[in-house]
Amino acid sequence: MNNNEKRFLLKLSRKSIKNFLETGEKIVPKPEEIKYKVLREKKACFVTLKQDNLLRGCVGHIESFQPLYKDVIDNSISAAFQDNRFEPLKSHELDKINIEISVLSPPEKISFSCKQDLLEQITVGIDGVVLKRGDSRAVYLPQVWSKFTNKEDFLDSLAEKAGLSKDAWKDKKMEFYKFSVIEFSD
């Protein structure tokens, strides 16, 4: 993605949040307003909101099912108003938030024979990771690596985020997927 496409998505995200704050409605851009072809392609993204460098909301999709610009609109509104870890964004906060968009590569299933094999296939700082077992699921974007000193701690925390015991990731029945992101912020 080039800088113009990134700037367009960041403006679209902020405009979506502002419009929803003011009207309670989702914006629906006209096709001719989406002048960059890549933004009309099916891609998944996460939108992360921060205020004073602290998380204020983060919502996204792992797999693509709609054009990227629509995913940005939906996830921007969800991060601002529907992330159940936070109160809905208030109008006085709009100018204080920083918006970060992460466009995901398609997730790739990790086939592994043992704990060590799994660890060797995950690259610190590069790979986002999805952990799944039954109805339990959690995801960390690559940016989350900055909070951990090693892969085991990262996976312990990811398992706990999924509502499992911290060492549940060592179970061979666990499914893992990895992905990379193009991340940019305003």
Description of the molecule:
The protein is built from four helices and eight strands, in the order H-E-E-H-E-E-H-E-E-H-E-E. The mean pLDDT is 96. It is globular and about 50 Å long. The protein has 186 residues and is of the alpha+beta class. Strand 1 and strand 2 (54-60) form a beta hairpin. Helix 1 crosses helix 2 (68-81).
SSE blueprint and pairings:
Blueprint: H1 3-23, E1 44-51, E2 54-60, H2 68-81, E3 97-104, E4 108-109, H3 115-120, E5 128-133, E6 136-140, H4 151-161, E7 175-179, E8 181-185
Antiparallel strand pairs: 1-2, 1-3, 3-8, 4-7, 5-6, 5-7
Helix pairs in contact: 1-2
Key traits:
alpha+beta, Dna Ligase, domain 1
Short description:
The chain has 186 residues and is an alpha+beta fold. The chain is built from 4 helices and 8 strands.
In round numbers, the mean pLDDT is: 96
Tell me the CATH topology of the largest domain. Answer: Glycoprotein, Type 4 Pilin
Strand order of the largest sheet: 2-1-3-8
How many helices? 4
- Estimate the global geometry from the Cα principal axes: globular
For the largest beta-sheet, the strand count, sense and barrel status come to:
4 strands, antiparallel
Task: Give the distance, in angstroms, between the N- and C-terminal Cα atoms.
Answer: 15 Å
Q: What's the CATH H-level homologous superfamily of the largest domain?
A: Hypothetical protein ph0010, domain 1
User: In percent, how much strand structure appears in the residues?
Assistant: 15-25%
Work out the radius of gyration.
17 Å
How many β-strands, per DSSP?
8
